[in-house]
Amino acid sequence: MDPFAPESLAACAAIALAAGVIRGITGFGGAMVMTPPLALLLGPLAAVPVALLLECLAAAPMLAQTRGQVRWRVIGPIVAAGILTIPLGAWVLVSLDPSTMRRAIAATVVAFSLVLLAGWRYHGEPRVAASFGVGALCGALLGATGMGGPPAIVYLLAGPGPIETARADLTWFVGAIAAAGLGVLAFVGALARDPLVLAALLAPGYLAGMVAGIRLFSRFDDRGFRRFTLVFLAAVSLGILVA
Q1: What is the chain's Cα-based Rg?
Q2: Which residues, at least 6 apart from 155, have a Cβ–Cβ distance to it below 8 Å?
Q3: Which of 14, 36, 40, 149 lies at 20 to 30 Å from 77 by C-alpha?
Q4: Measured between alpha carbons, how far is 132 from 135 in angstroms, rounded to an integer?
């Protein structure tokens, strides 16, 4: 579809608004909501840059809001390892079938989400080695499939910390990994003019949705937030699995 036709813009704006609400509530879900339907409407070469651009734009105010709650010793290794392995994922993307990989990843995420929804949690702080491993997996998956967040999301939500800490960790992780992915796209020449213009047109609606989501976040308690986030993650992964 022509991304600038009125009907296309209207559909994309509605998608961006819904994605912004989810991003505001959870601290991460914008790209997961946006990328699949935008890819169906516009193709992945337009959808992925638009989603990453809006994620980077959304990250700025939320980074400032959550910087006091983020656990740097946990997020640092995850982000560092993720950035290092994004090129590896890009190599995998051109070597293997990305559709098969996305389905395998989605099935894994569904399984872990169901385990956590059943009440499993670990106790104690995440270990550095585990954080590096999760980050490396996230970076490789982002480069290979455009879906790098779920392993870190499940990992961070499994711990015993309060919801403000989990949300802050997710916000900083997603912002950093989106910026890194955007940098890789720019390096390989995949940032064309149309996605930049489209992202600018969709930004007001996305930010408005995010503000609404931030206000809704205050209505969740610890259990409700984790349940909402995991159900959302499992639903998106199921959609990818059966698509």
Answers
A1: 17
A2: 78, 126, 130, 131, 134
A3: 36
A4: 5
